[in-house]
């Protein structure tokens, strides 16, 4: 094995983690981006997870098998989770998870409408960087669902232009 003094800081952390001297990977971006409407949380009689657990229910119900959140982190067993909660002063709810349409609401299955990017991360997650674009106007939850119901095919692609037209604020 290479001399630890010659290794850069992150390589040293990885070596310590491999030898189980320090638990550098205990925490990381292991939190699901979207848990609502998944088969893991489906307790419906007919096996229709999308109808049983839409986005609108997510803020009011406890998950049994996992959690989700905006750009969140958790320990590797998902026992304790941390994530962003945003509010622009106009939305009727706190922004705690990605908004999306379920299969019946969208045109091609799960369809997340948020704008976010993972920009950088060290292998041990001692450094992580992401960008979430949150509109300062009210997020059009109902309008997006209605527009996709109205269309037979395609996607409501002009969402970003409408949402980010000079009203976006980044949370990085």
Describe the 3D structure.
The protein has 172 residues and is α+β, with helices and mostly antiparallel strands. The protein has one domain. It has helices spanning 9-18, 49-52, 55-58, 141-150, 159-163, and strands at residues 27-28, 70-75, 81-84, 100-101, 111-112, 115-121, 128-135, 168-171. The strands form three sheets. A three-stranded antiparallel beta sheet has the order 1-2-3, with no helix packed on it. Strands 6-7-8 form a three-stranded antiparallel beta sheet, with no helix packed on it. The protein has a two-stranded antiparallel sheet with strand order 4-5. Strand 2 (70-75) and strand 3 form a beta hairpin.
Count of all domains: 1
Radius of gyration: 19 Å
First CA to last CA: what distance?
Answer: 37 Å
* Sheet with most strands: 3 strands, antiparallel
Structural class category = alpha+beta
Say how many strands there are: 8
Helix content: 10-25%
Order of helices and strands: HEHHEEEEEEHHE
The strand line-up of the biggest sheet is: 1-2-3
Chain-averaged pLDDT: 80
Question: pLDDT under 50 segments (min length 5)?
Answer: none
Indicate the overall shape.
globular
Annotation field: number of helices = 5
Beta-strand residue percentage: 15-25%
């Amino acid at each position: 094995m290479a001399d630890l003094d010659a290794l850069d800081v992150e390589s040293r952390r990885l070596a310590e983690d491999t030898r189980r001297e320090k638990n550098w990977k205990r925490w990381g971006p292991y939190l699901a981006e979207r848990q609502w409407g998944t088969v893991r949380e489906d307790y419906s009689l007919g096996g229709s997870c999308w109808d049983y657990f839409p986005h609108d229910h997510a803020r009011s119900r406890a998950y049994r098998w996992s959690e989700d959140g905006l750009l969140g982190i958790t320990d590797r067993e998902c026992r304790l989770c941390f994530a962003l909660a945003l509010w622009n002063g106009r939305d009727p709810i706190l922004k705690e998870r990605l908004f999306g349409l379920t299969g019946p609401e969208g045109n091609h299955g799960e369809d997340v409408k948020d704008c976010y990017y993972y920009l950088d991360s060290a292998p041990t997650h001692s450094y992580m960087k992401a960008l979430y674009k949150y509109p300062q106007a009210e997020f059009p939850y109902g309008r997006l669902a209605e527009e996709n119901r109205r269309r037979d095919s395609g996607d409501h692609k002009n969402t970003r232009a409408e949402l980010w037209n000079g009203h976006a604020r980044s949370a990085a």
